[in-house]
């Protein structure tokens, strides 16, 4: 294997390259290390164990004075390097790479905060050159104090001295501040009255949370709603007020020790938890976890993360217990970032607000990752990662703006071989989200000084992002098919070269197809210059269209009808009367409001309902997640039959078997597992047919369905076993959060 690591930080002139060189030598790795203006790129080849050790030791054994601001890594196909070398520096300067993500508080700053003799004792805005806010405070480039929201504060003598002293840790630390001169926190009640300030405000907040209160806390990229995660009653109160009935809530823990008590943590998960990016990491809950069940109801995972800003550390030091820390918003709106906005939107949810007077220039939600097959898989790429560039395997011919999709939107700007993906914007469903979207497009064009010669958007005529493109960039607009964009994003981050072809599996919930139907179970033959649709799921109807997304039993009804015809009315598998069933079947038969789809996401939903897991859902992919977790409890290795009819992958033989097994009383977990095994089989078979015809062996897996760990892991290993080279996402999400990258690449 080849490991590629891209690091930004204080790594030049501190003996970092010789360190990497020695470490690679010690582990017998081949490849290179190279400096450029933005950081260091390392590529190393060797055995899996050596590479894993290499990765873990970069963090652990790096030179004392070096600092890592970010570390992107991915495992790629090997190139057969001959030896390990220090390559000549690439010194083409680009000011854009100086825009860094927000960095978790460093150990030295934590020591300052803990030291009762230090003037920053207990100070929640402590930072230095090695840590602190970046993206969320920058107003303009170059990255200088006057171009940040810290410009509102003038440094005291002591801070100024540090700032100008080259040997000081805070030399040119733009957000440098102390209690004397910097921002301060205050606690405000729901009527807007100030309750307390500074240290008192933090102590009061701790007490309020201990007593079962919900407090909105202003962090780096927006407000969190924080409450005791151990109290069922409190968490239920939060859910009720936030109108977020079942979706899992993220939990912030004081330290890794407490996470270990509640969840299983392997070395990769631990690395992710303590990395400077400090993402939320999806972990498997322990059977005897003490955390309130309603944090992630009907769910055997938990999203855990560690404090990343001094204010969080101070709160967690007082609380000494895990707290729910979820983006402060109502249902699916963007995270609240300003006081006024927070009071308006959150006063029905939070009793108090712990706020401060440092402006948040741009919102930034927490990132979410999951470890699958020892790879770090991003589910949401935001704080800590954005706006680090994704490096392309080729140079773009002209500057590009990509407008992204509709769900999980991110936008991107691309220039030369770099694509800057925005932080998570979210679903473009509410006026607030649309506003945030427009702001972000303007923001990225200005911040990265990009004048796009071409603008890419999704083909869907109903998407807000596409309409935005029509309105402002009509002449330069190029529309990109959604699933092609998925596959392109996967190819680009996996170093696929111009002219190469891949077999692409784009499995997701929905995307506008070339034939104007809803696609989502697509097998493409693709290169950077185009694609052909080789296979797709057998088309079925969605009675009620979008309603079927919220009510998987509608899809279940349709799948049963496709398989059994009018017999479906008597299958007795769904909690529906014959009349209700007839209503949906009639809709399908008469073609009333029942769009045709080939969506794999909907197939997962429908099967989940047929097996009996989830008939109605309150959040995206909930039915599929319930089925995935059930499958995880089964060791079943069997599979169901399916057939390939022309270009269609016919799942009806499988459904017939599932119905039979349901009637025989086979365990639901086992049926769920066999279904997953069957989808893996479908992928390997379709890939095999295409390889036989074309000789292509690289297989790109993209689309939200591949967030399913059982499916991804199973597919990854089966493809390898059969001699394919599977390409999976490790830099951008497989869900629609990665679409903007694919769009940039499409219009290169
Ligand atoms: Zn620091
Ligand atoms: Zn000061
Ligand atoms: Fe998609």
Written overview of the protein:
The chain has 748 residues and is an alpha/beta fold. The protein contains 22 helices and 32 strands. Strands 6, 7, 8, 9, 10, 11, 12, 13, 14, 15, 16 and 17 form a 12-stranded mixed β-sheet that branches. A 7-stranded mixed β-sheet has the order 29-30-26-25-24-31-32, with helices on both faces. A 6-stranded mixed β-sheet has the order 18-21-20-19-22-23, sandwiched between helices. Strand 20 and strand 21 form a beta hairpin. Helix 13 packs across helix 22 (739-746) and helix 15 (552-564) crosses helix 19. The longest helix has 27 residues, at 668-694. The two termini are 29 Å apart. The mean pLDDT is 94. The structure holds zinc ion (2 copies) and fe (iii) ion. One zinc ion binds next to helix 4.
